[in-house]
Every structure is written in C-alpha cells, then in structure tokens.
Amino acid sequence: MSIRTILHYPDPRLRCVAAPIAQVDDAVRRLVDDMAETMYQAPGIGLAAIQVNEARRIIVIDISETRDQLQVFINPEIFYRAGEQEREEGCLSVPGVYGSVLRADRIRVRALNRDGQAFEIEAEGLLATCIQHEIDHLDGKVFVDYLSRLKQSRIRKKFEKQQRLAM
Ligand code: K2U
Ligand code: ZN
Fold first, then answer.
1. What is the mean pLDDT of the chain?
2. Which residue in 17, 85, 97, 110 is a FRET match for 163, CA 20 to 30 A apart?
3. What is d(CA 48, CA 137) in angstroms, rounded to the nearest whole number?
C-alpha cells in the first residue's frame, strides 16, 4: 500500500467525471487500499478516487471513532433520498475551508464492495453527508460549489495565491 498525493482545489483534474469500474480486480483492490491508507493518514473520514488523480468511481469512508470500520463503495449510486440536513463540511482537497451544505438526510445507496459483490445500504446523518460529498467528487463537484459566489471567489483567489507562492 502507498500514500497517494491529494489534489488541491482549484486543480482542473478535480472536475473530471469518473468512469465506472468494469471489473473489480487486484489493481482496483490495490487502489482501494492506497485510498484507505491515504484517508487515514490525512486524516479524513472519506476519500474519492478523483482526489488522488484516479478518475474511477471508487470512494472509501470511515466515520468510526476507532478508525477501523472502513466502508468501500465501487460504482456507488444513490437511488433514494429523503429529508434535508445542513451540516458543516470540509474537504481534504480544500484544506482549511469549511462551510455549511444542505443535503438529503437519509439516502439508500447501491454499490460493489472490495470483492466486487453488490450491496445496498441505508444511511443517515454524517454517513449520508459523507457519501453524498464523495459521490459529488466522482461527478467533478467540490463542496465549495454549494457556497456563495463571493465565498467561492475568495477561496479560489486564496488557493491560486498559495500555488503562485509555492512555485
Ligand atoms: O472528500 C473529502 O475530502 C473527505 C472529507 C469528507 C467529509 C467532508 C464533509 C463532511 C463529512 C465528510 C474529509 O473527511 S474532510 C474532514 C472533515 C470531516 C468531518 C467534517 C468536516 C471535515
Ligand atoms: Zn472532499
């Protein structure tokens, strides 16, 4: 397993739409394991493959306090949404930026697991927020897109200045 570099906003590669996984093979499992290691090291409670420059429909999540309950979603699809919840979000690709985002409070998701087996779960609260946040990433969306235009402009300018200074 290896730690992967996490892309930072406004990197245009974060805007790619990820491709579905045709076959869950050993290469996919290696990527899943690298994503999990990268997420735990960051640390974060979720990570989408696009954030490590892999435009493939894979997300990993662990919202447990003990940090030992990894959830893997390959080709995740939300097929039911209910309710609303507004929650403070952050993102490993937009470090140091937080903002409130309104999302569905309860969702039902179908996906493939690390062995390629199909499963469905119902999620609510923080897990529902995290799954929606990560699936957004697979569709080229970043949580700052839900913030005001003024906030988005300030965030973009901040990161573009940081990138110039880092050169
Ligand atoms: O996609 C990512 O960058 C991972 C996020 C996932 C996440 C964001 C907002 C709400 C829930 C999950 C990171 O884990 S960012 C760290 C974090 C965790 C909880 C709340 C805010 C920020
Ligand atoms: Zn994120």
1. 97
2. 17
3. 6
DSSP secondary structure letters along 17-53: PPBPPS---HHHHHHHHHHHHHHHHTT-SEEEGGGGT
152 torsion bin: left (phi>0), alpha (psi -120 to 50), beta (else):
alpha
Task: Give the E-state strand segments of the chain in sequence order.
Answer: 46-48, 58-61, 71-82, 85-89, 99-103, 106-112, 118-124
Ligand 1 atom showing the smallest separation from residue 126 Cα: 11
Amino acid making up residue 101: V
Q: Would you say residue 166 has pLDDT above 90? A: no
CA distance linking residue 97 with residue 101, whole number of Å: 13
Residues 6+ apart with CB under 8 A from 139: 17, 18
Average pLDDT score over residue span 1-13:
95
Residue among 62, 133, 136, 137 to mutate when testing ligand 1 (max atoms within 8 A of CB): 133
- For ligand 1, say whether the CB of 50 is within 6 Å of any of its atoms: no
pLDDT (tens digit, 9 = 90+) per residue, 70-119? 999 999 999 999 999 999 999 999 999 999 999 999 999 999 999 999 99
> Does ligand 1 have an atom closer than 6 angstroms to the CB of 38?
no
- Residue nearest atom 6 in ligand 1 by C-alpha distance: 46
